[in-house]
Amino acid sequence: MADGSIWRAVRRQLTGQRIQSWVVDANDGIIATAGLLEGFAGAGADDLLLITAASAATIAGALSAGGAKWAEAAAERDSQLATIAYETQKLAANPDEELAELTSYYVDKGLSEDLARDVAEQLSAVDPLAAQLQTEYGIDEIPPARAPILAGISAGLSFAVGASIPLLITTLAPISLDAVALLIAVVVSLTLTSIIAAKSSYMSAPRTILRSLIVGLGTMGISFLAGSVLLPPAD
């Protein structure tokens, strides 16, 4: 029963981390595209240029976010595989030394020498490699080969979903309402995604919302000022 509770807690944590990762990528899409739009708006761009720029930013941003996540996940998996090969060699060459290292780990955790030795022996009897990987490196399992690709696709789609919010507002709202509608859409979407991230990770919703709004609105404001300075709108 206790083991089941532990694994349920681990699954909840992993699910929360996955949701938080999706939200972060979506927020990046919202903030990056809204900031770009504000920068062009500050420079006096018309709606056609705004839509073109936002569309290009959505596509490029999604590909960049997906590629970066794929590269990161693939590199982490390669590192884990190299660690497995290294530990496998060490276990084959000197199993007694590896058992002593495992015992020392549990002694450092507060167990007595005899109990630590007993725990290390029992774990090693079941799966010595898994015991070493978990205690020394915190590796519980190796993701499958498709995992980095799926992570990249997920990140790219999340970014695109976030970026589509300011893009759709610019496309659908009347010219006179663009700025107001975009501001409202960014505030609402960042608030909603922040609540989802906070609930999935047991964080404070107000603080998460505040941080997201500071970054999002700050980015939009600075981008607008930068656009105004670089190319003031014509009278």
UniProtKB/TrEMBL annotation:
Membrane topology designation: Multi-pass membrane protein
Biological process (GO), any one: intracellular manganese ion homeostasis
Localization in the cell: Endomembrane system
Keywords: Membrane, Transmembrane, Transmembrane helix
Record-annotated membrane-spanning stretches: 149-169, 175-197, 209-231
GO cellular component: endomembrane system
Alphabetized InterPro entries for the sequence: Ccc1_fam (IPR008217)
Keyword Transmembrane: yes
Molecular function in Gene Ontology: manganese ion transmembrane transporter activity
UniProt entry tagged with the keyword Membrane: yes
Family annotation (PANTHER family): FE(2+)/MN(2+) TRANSPORTER PCL1
Protein name: VIT family protein
Organism: Microlunatus phosphovorus (strain ATCC 700054 / DSM 10555 / JCM 9379 / NBRC 101784 / NCIMB 13414 / VKM Ac-1990 / NM-1)
